[in-house]
């Protein structure tokens, strides 16, 4: 029996979590969920958006499945998502991006993985207002974090039978910061002679991605480029409703969909649970429950093949109808 922390989130979070928990149970995975609350609900009940017991629970269980949590815009509490990544030092954000059968996009041969450094760069939040007309935002790149993410990318490539790691930067302009990032990826690349290593500038990378995405395998990027490029790559295979992700640290991991809490469709039984389900599939692989992961993925694709889809990807099934069809296809 494996205990996993569950954050059902808000907006469409509770609907898609319900679907995913049901499907995982039917897959036979021997999991006990330890439920925690964060975000607005936690502010109302506990007086803080991220109670210590959430962090303690994840530290104890080492793995969490998390549905999206709303961040108030321009006021209120800081993003719970950013706080969690910081508190648990979840330094690697992994976004695998592969075509899903029957979800038609411009390309049918996309199979790449974006590995984004999750802790520094412009996201370190070092900003200052010089005067009314000038603001500075400092881009922080360190050798320690860059070597750590580069090593992670190469290890990921080895473990997953990948052939190449491509470092994406703007080192022609940010010569010192992105230059240091490249110095680190080059150094780590030497330890992996069986994995091909190449470099590309981020602007050219974006153009190449929309023209010929199949040339990319594993990509490793500093935080900001990783954030932007990974949304672009999600768009290559069907968009936010199907984009999975994992935040991995030395001791803990949080698996979550790329999308947010979609308040516009909250409570309407319209949400697509696929992105959270595929993130849960990655979680099952991470805890070595590969059989259950495969069973779920197969049933999901069979459901798509039967033409059963939610509205965001061109179908008419409700969240619960789609969930029931996946469960039926697992048995
Ligand atoms: P969003 O991803 O929630 O929604 C963007 C659009 O995509 C909306 O039209 C929504 O209906 C649709 N959509 C998203 N997920 C869907 C799904 N599973 N099924 C069907 N349609 C889906 O982005 P938005 O509106 O910018 O953010 C809403 C809130 O979510 C914000 O407070 C934001 O801070 C938060 N957020 C939380 C994240 C997390 O918890 N990891 C990640 C991104 C945003």
Task: Give the number of DSSP strands.
Answer: 12
The H/E string reads EHEHHEHEEEEHEHEHEHEEHHH
The CATH architecture classification of the largest domain is: 3-Layer(aba) Sandwich
Radius of gyration: 20 Å
> Which runs of at least 5 residues are low in confidence (pLDDT < 50)?
none
Brief summary of the model shown:
The protein is of the alpha/beta class and 331 residues long. The protein contains eleven helices and twelve strands. The chain has helices spanning 13-26, 40-46, 52-61, 80-87, 143-159, 177-189, 202-211, 223-236, 274-286, 290-305, 319-330, and strands spanning 2-7, 31-36, 63-66, 92-98, 111-117, 127-131, 134-137, 164-169, 196-201, 218-221, 244-248, 253-257.
Explained architecture:
The protein is an alpha/beta fold and 331 residues long. The chain has two domains: 1-94 and 238-331, Isopropylmalate Dehydrogenase; 106-236, 3-Layer(aba) Sandwich (Isopropylmalate Dehydrogenase), CATH 3.40.718.10. It contains eleven helices and twelve strands. It has helices spanning 13-26, 40-46, 52-61, 80-87, 143-159, 177-189, 202-211, 223-236, 274-286, 290-305, 319-330; strands at 2-7, 31-36, 63-66, 92-98, 111-117, 127-131, 134-137, 164-169, 196-201, 218-221, 244-248, 253-257. The strands form two sheets. A ten-stranded mixed β-sheet has the order 2-1-3-12-11-4-5-10-8-9, sandwiched between helices. The protein has a two-stranded antiparallel sheet with strand order 6-7. A hairpin with a 4-residue loop joins strand 11 (244-248) and strand 12. Helix 9 packs antiparallel against helix 10 (290-305). The longest helix is centred in the middle third of the chain and has 17 residues, at 143-159. The radius of gyration is 20 Å and the shape is globular. 44% of the residues are buried. Bound molecules: 1,4-dihydronicotinamide adenine dinucleotide (NAI).
């Amino acid at each position: 029996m494996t205990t996993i922390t569950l954050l059902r989130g808000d907006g469409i979070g509770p609907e898609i979590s319900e679907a995913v928990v049901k499907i995982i149970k039917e897959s036979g995975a021997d999991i006990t969920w330890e439920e925690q609350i964060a975000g607005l609900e936690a502010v109302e009940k506990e007086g803080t958006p991220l109670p210590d017991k959430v962090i303690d629970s994840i530290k104890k269980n080492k793995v969490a499945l998390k549905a999206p949590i709303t961040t108030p815009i321009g006021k209120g509490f800081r993003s719970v998502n950013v706080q969690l990544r910081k508190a648990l030092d979840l330094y690697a954000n992994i976004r695998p991006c592969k075509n899903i059968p029957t979800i038609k996009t411009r390309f049918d041969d996309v199979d790449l993985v974006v590995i984004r450094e999750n802790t520094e760069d412009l996201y370190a939040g070092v900003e200052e207002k010089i005067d009314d007309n000038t603001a500075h935002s400092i881009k922080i790149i360190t050798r320690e974090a860059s070597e750590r993410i580069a090593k992670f990318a190469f290890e990921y490539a080895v473990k997953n039978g990948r052939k190449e790691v491509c470092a994406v930067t703007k080192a022609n302009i940010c010569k010192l910061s992105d230059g240091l990032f490249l110095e680190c990826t080059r150094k780590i690349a030497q330890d992996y002679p069986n994995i091909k290593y190449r470099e590309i500038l981020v602007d050219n990378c974006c153009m190449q991605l929309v023209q010929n995405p199949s040339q990319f395998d594993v990509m490793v990027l500093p935080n900001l480029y990783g954030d932007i490029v990974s949304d672009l790559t999600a768009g290559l295979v069907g968009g936010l409703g199907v984009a999975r992700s994992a935040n991995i640290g030395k001791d803990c991991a949080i698996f979550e969909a790329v999308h947010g809490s979609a308040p516009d469709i909250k409570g309407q039984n319209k949400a697509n649970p696929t992105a959270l389900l595929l993130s849960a599939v990655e979680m099952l692989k991470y805890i070595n429950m590969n059989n259950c992961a495969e069973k779920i993925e197969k049933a999901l694709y069979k459901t798509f093949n039967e033409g059963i889809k939610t509205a965001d990807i061109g179908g008419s099934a409700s969240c619960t109808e789609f969930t029931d069809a996946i469960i039926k296809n697992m048995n």
